[in-house]
Amino acid sequence: MSNDALFPGEAVTSYDVTGRCGTDYYEVFSDIPAADRAHWERAQAYVDEVGPQMRDAWDRAEYPLAVAHRMGEMDLVVDGIVHPALTRMSPLAAGLVNMEISRGDGSLGTVLAVQGGLALRTLALFGSPAQQERWLVPLADGSVLGSFALTEPDHGSDSVSLETVARRDGEEWVLRGAKKWIGNGASGGITFVWARVDDEGAVEHGSVRCFLVEQERPGYLGSVITGKVSLRGIHQAHIRLDDVRVPLDAVLPGTRSFKDASTVLYATRSGVAWSALGHATACYEAALAYAKTRVQFGKPLAKFQMVQERLTHMLEELTAMQLYCRRMADMDEAGTLRPTQASLAKFHNTRAARRVASTARDLLGGNGILLENGVMQHMADIEAIHTYEGTESVQALLIGRDITGMSAFA
User: Fold this and answer.
1) N or C: which end of the chain has fewer CB within 10 A?
2) Do 95 and 136 belong together in one domain?
3) What are the pLDDT digits (tens) for 86-114?
């Protein structure tokens, strides 16, 4: 903020509202173990290092692959996955890392969700020893980018109806179909493609399996989706699989049905709840900082009753989100977290984050739409996380089935 008036009416030319305030009104994170805090602080250092570059990248709708590689170099993508070859990160530490990275930049939060939560987790859970030996560490250290290809142009919420097929042809599988909204799907790495086996007479005919596909394979056509107004700093791909041939051992042996894909998605829903918390934290803290420094009618906005009420509503939402996430992490650590409990956290937190972002943008007035103040970017990025890993409606149906014992799915 400048105190030197260049012209009458221009005493303040910008506002410093993107710094951390450490908001934790109920001291939800005051007692976290030192090891978990160390992971969190490493995520903060990462965000501080790459944040300016990502703000420019978001503005230009560019995906700087170096920042994705750097995330792996700093050992931030393991996402709490338990495997001998990976650094141990507790569910709480994984959540805090996700929260902090999303607080800095939503596109980076999605890089983490795709690289660690989806691709690395799929390989760790279902890959063969040989596949893991070849690819696990490169995915974890960021030297190879990974993607998770389940959603199709015609099948989003009803992805269980996927139409991409895999058929046997001698010593190869042949993949044919299309996928959409695939993060890292056109970034030159590997893609975990979920497909339905088309092999009449075979025991596994009709079953859903996952295939490890190197993106340079002939017939793999990944094009970047343009025109996005959310998560502009990461590229999602529209993929066409035009008779892509892979060896028989490209199939992940642990995958046998769509339930295996659901296992991965259930785990990442926890991450989305933490990501929403990160976005909301950034918006609330920007609004608080702005209210303290922006002067109107001769006094800071923070001295107006209406502004204090709005800040209180935002803090109410934020504290509830923190409590959801902390309790979810504790249950996950104890091995008692159920999928629908993760769904409820995702359902609540993305909705709450939307409300916090909307209030923050309104409180900042015209300055709220400037990218330099962060709120508008977070507001746009929240729209994507509100949808992916299961829409609001899908989460409600999963939770509703659990509490009533009755399925309302069509």
Assistant:
1) C
2) yes
3) 999 999 999 999 999 999 999 999 999 99
pLDDT at 4 (0 to 100): 55
Contacts of 194 by beta carbon, 8 Å cutoff, 6+ apart: 149, 150, 162, 164, 208, 209, 210, 211, 255, 258, 261
Q: What is the CATH number of the domain that holds 87?
A: 1.10.540.10
Dihedral through CA 380, CA 383, CA 388, CA 392, nearest 10? 170
Q: Report if residue 236 sits inside a domain.
A: yes
* Beta strands 190-197 and 146-149, pairing class: parallel
pLDDT confidence of residue 409: 85
Residues 133, 45 within the same domain: yes
Tokens of 213: 């596909």
Whether the pTM exceeds 0.90: the reply is yes
Task: Clarify whether residues 73 and 160 are in a common domain.
Answer: no
Domain region containing 290: 259-404
Choose the final residue of a domain: 112, 140, 168: 140
Please report which residue ranges of 61-192 form alpha helices under DSSP H: 65-73, 91-104, 106-112, 121-126, 129-140
Look at residues 129, 98, 139 and name the one whose alpha carbon lies nearest to residue 254.
Answer: 129
Q: How far is it, in rounded angstroms, from Cα 94 to Cα 81?
A: 9
Average pLDDT over residues 55-80: 96
> What residues have CB less than 8 Å from 1, skipping those under 6 apart?
12, 13, 14, 15, 16, 293
52 with 107, same domain: the answer is yes
Q: Are 268 and 376 in the same domain?
A: yes
For the chain, the distance separating the N- and C-terminal CA atoms, rounded to the nearest angstrom, is 55
What DSSP string describes 35-82? HHHHHHHHHHHHHHHHHHHHHHHHHHT---HHHHHHHHHTT---TT--
121-171: pLDDT as tens digits: 999 999 999 999 999 999 999 999 999 999 999 998 887 889 999 999 999
Average pLDDT in the 342-363 region? Answer: 98
Give the chain's length. Answer: 410
Binned at pLDDT 50, 70 and 90, residue 1 comes out as very low
